[in-house]
Amino acid sequence: MEKQRRKVLKSGSGAALxxxxxxxxxxxxxxALAESNRTAFEARSMAATLKAIxxxxxxxxxxxxxxxPDIAENGAAVHLGIxxxxxxxxxxxxxxEKNPNPLAVAFRLPEGTQANVQTRxxxxxxxxxxxxxxxxxxxxxxxxxxxxxxxxxxx
Amino acid sequence: xxxxxxxxxxxAKDGVTEVKVLISHEMESGQRKDAAGAVFPAWxxxxxxxxxxxxxxxxxxxxxxxxxxxxxxxRFKGGAAGDRISLTWKDNKGETRTDETKIA
Lengths: 155, 104
Description:
The complex is a heterodimer.
Chain A: H1 14-24, H2 38-42, H3 46-53, E1 58-60, E2 64-67, E3 71-72, E4 78-84, E5 89-96, E6 103-108, E7 113-121, E8 127-135, E9 138-148
Parallel strand pairs in A: 1-9, 3-9
Antiparallel strand pairs in A: 2-4, 4-7, 5-6, 5-8, 8-9
Helix pairs in contact in A: 1-3
Chain B: E1 7-13, E2 16-22, E3 45-52, E4 55-62, E5 71-77, E6 84-91, E7 96-102
Antiparallel strand pairs in B: 1-2, 2-5, 3-4, 3-6, 6-7
């Protein structure tokens, strides 16, 4: 029964993502989770999620670090750590590309809170994990492929 | 429905307070089905707010993909031993809970 919902979302790999980011570039940046934004959590593809967050002009940055296991034995709890040396980070979001809804969590950081958070997320299957950091008015990202040996929505 | 306490540990060192949180919650995603094929309805935390005394130091929106019994760790500048750290969560059924500790 677990297999039925394993529909692979057709949002593709890195190259495809760059394409959709270009598309997202024409969309006016929104409030980007300054207030809680449930629409972004209901989005079913990476493109739709980024659009809902208002993440136009996303750039890869070495100043964003995503740490996690290369292979997760248990997809129900994958420990992730995110840190950034960028100044003025106001938002950190974690997106698991192949989950039914990619957006897992969005942190809003007031001034004085460091861009350094850890949490655990569920992963339905092996996937790229993206972390999106908003610093000032710009979005930065880092990604990591995490292989899951035991699928993750078992609780 | 009764809720279980959130475990919070906060330690201040060199002007930075590190907070570690373990929330007790099912975080049912709404994706799982029982043997008869009926979906377990989604039941998950949607919002979390952490405060130092009365100032918000972290707000988070959760989706269904945060693991059962969510774990969080974060750091903020300031904080001294004895200051209050509280954590409030709200789930999609409207249940809410606040727990509090003091910085060690």
